[in-house]
Write a structure and sequence with these properties.
Layout lengths: L2 H19 L2 H17 L1 H8 L5 H12 L8 H12 L6 H16 L1 E8 L5 H15 L2 E8 L6 E6 L2 E6 H19 L1
Parallel strand pairs: 1-2
Antiparallel strand pairs: 1-3, 3-4
Length: about 190
């Protein structure tokens, strides 16, 4: 069976269970944190994927990573991790996590929005863009920001996978391409 199908099934079952218990939102926050850790810290992902490490140690390891100011991880997350590792599906944990996040966002009309700028922007700009996105897409905006000096100015706005590029770099490249095309025709 395909790993994609398996991870979607686990995520569907988990979100259904979390909705029944009324803990879908808090589990979503834990899943965001787990996903971020597994994607961005290679050593942590290596521990999860290592077949020589006992499943109970892996579960304790993941739970310790997820601890905030709380004294423990949610019981739903704990049960889910035990199920995943007991079934020998630990290698699919990141995919299950990503699928849960996507399903939760779809169910709650949450739009993952990236604002990429050359320099930091003020809260008034973020608020205006957030209102614009909400009015156009009619969904809650979940912000991420990135500073990328290579775009030279302007901004790139990515909303739920759709990109609006109003950067100076892209504009200059477009103008250069148009000039080159016009000069080719004259020759």
């Amino acid at each position: 069976m395909s790993s994609g199908i398996i991870s979607v099934r686990y995520a569907k079952a988990l979100i259904s269970y979390a909705n029944e218990l009324g803990v879908a939102e808090s589990l979503y926050k834990e899943m965001l944190k787990l996903s971020d850790m597994l994607k961005n810290i290679p050593n942590w992902r290596a521990v999860v994927l290592n077949p020589t490490i006992n499943k109970d140690l892996k579960i304790k390891f993941i739970e310790s990573l997820l601890l905030n100011n709380d004294k423990s991880v949610s019981s739903t997350m704990s049960k889910f991790l035990k199920l995943v590792f007991s079934a020998g599906r630990g290698e699919l944990l990141l995919f299950m996590t990503e699928n849960y996040i996507k399903m939760y966002r779809d169910m709650n009309n949450i739009l993952k929005t990236w604002l990429i700028t050359a320099h930091p922007v003020g809260s008034n700009i973020k608020e205006r863009v957030s209102k614009l996105v909400y009015n156009v897409c009619n969904g809650t905006v979940e912000w991420s920001e990135k500073i990328d000096e290579s775009i030279q100015g302007g901004f790139i706005l990515i909303v739920d996978g759709f990109m609006f590029d109003a950067s100076v770099k892209t504009t200059l490249e477009r103008v250069k391409k148009e000039i080159v095309e016009k000069n080719k025709r004259k020759i």
